[in-house]
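Look over this today:
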Amino acid sequence: MGWLIDPETESVLVYPPQQQPQLLEEETAILPTPELVKDLQLKVGDIFAWLKHQ
């Protein structure tokens, strides 16, 4: 599982194991997480809101 976060387009390219990458652009889209943190629910909008505070 991997995420490529693009702050310029405010999108996240998700690389799930043994699947095709998936582009998430909607602020309300929930990012998939590894089984290790399966209860974590992050939205695309959350990631970019945090980055703007930096």
Observations:
- Residues 44-52 form the longest helix (9 residues).
- Helices lie at 44-52.
- The two ends are 25 Å apart (CA to CA).
